[in-house]
Amino acid sequence: MTQNASIQQLGHLLNIICPMHAVLDHTGHIVHAGASTNKLLRTEDATGARFLEIFELKRPRRVSTMQELCAIDGVKLHLQLRAAPRTELKGVLVPLGDTPAFGPAGGAIVNLSFGISVLEAVKDFSLTSADFAVTDLAVEMLYLVEAKSAVMEASRKLNLRLQGAKIAAEEQAFTDTLTGLGNRRAMDQVLSRLMETEQDFALMHLDLDYFKAVNDNMGHAAGDHVLQRVAELMVAETRGDDTIIRAGGDEFVLVFARLINQERVSEIANRLISRLEEPILFNGRECRISASIGTTISGNYKMPALEQMMDDADVALYAAKRRGRGQHVLFDPSLRGGDSVVTMHQAR
């Protein structure tokens, strides 16, 4: 048997018993390296490299030749890769002596299957159970690491799904399903936050005119279509951080944070009324509506109170209805005099 054939036969045996190994010749050069060792060295074949030029022997110290290395056979070796990430290893060297593979000059086997940090190996070199001897406890540790990783990944995915479900449920709880606008719960949250932070804002109460006639004459499907189109128009005519609420039926509440200029408020309200008076087509037929709007502004109160502002906006809305619909009225305390307050049913 040739020397190369003997080395290959020895290497095959070592790959089974201790996959993380190196076979050295009498000069200290690697003549065969296990697949796991090649992984550590980030090469397909480490043959030809000098062992002590790749591994730094930290203990025992002052070893620089193959003869000195063979003199410490059976002693635990503390090694460190010279290249990044400078992983620390442990091993043991066994001289081969006079063998068919090496002749009288001899060689040695270095077993590196002991002591490597499993977590470090998995992270830095992507080692698996196949890179260790089947009897090595590292295999069991790897199984535990892999199991832990699998459990943590499953837990992470479950948490993401639960978080997504929670967010979806919260959004649904604060969303009107027909129009996609906020609902009364969302309105209470927005207004309470503005009150707590003492931000000025304008509060608009908008009610559709002639909407009942659409439902009565063309059916509820037409009414739903109109409400969805109304929502789209209001979103298009307001700022991204304005809040639009479907308060119920054909009533809407609009909240404009930091908007207290009365002329600007009236301009927005009149533009909304103008857009909502444009015919809305449903199955080839025109649906005609309008809107009445009542508004109040937090800056007009010494101490704004949510219930009071909501009631004042309603009073202004009813005044707009009484004046002929399709109008905007800004609240004024004089609106509360006499017969100015009527019911919504009467105003429609």
UniProtKB/TrEMBL annotation:
GO MF assignments: guanylate cyclase activity; nucleotide binding; nucleotidyltransferase activity
SMART domains given in the database record: GGDEF
Phosphoprotein is among the record's keywords: no
Keywords assigned by UniProt, alphabetized: cGMP biosynthesis, Nucleotide-binding, Nucleotidyltransferase, Transferase
PROSITE patterns noted in UniProt: GGDEF
All copies of domain GGDEF, residue ranges: 199-333
UniProt-listed Enzyme Commission number(s): 4.6.1.2
SUPFAM superfamilies reported for this sequence: Nucleotide cyclase
InterPro entries in UniProt: Biofilm_reg_signaling, GGDEF_dom, HNOB_dom_associated, HNOB_dom_associated_sf, Nucleotide_cyclase, Rev_trsase/Diguanyl_cyclase
Name of the protein in its database record: guanylate cyclase
Gene behind this protein: yegE_1
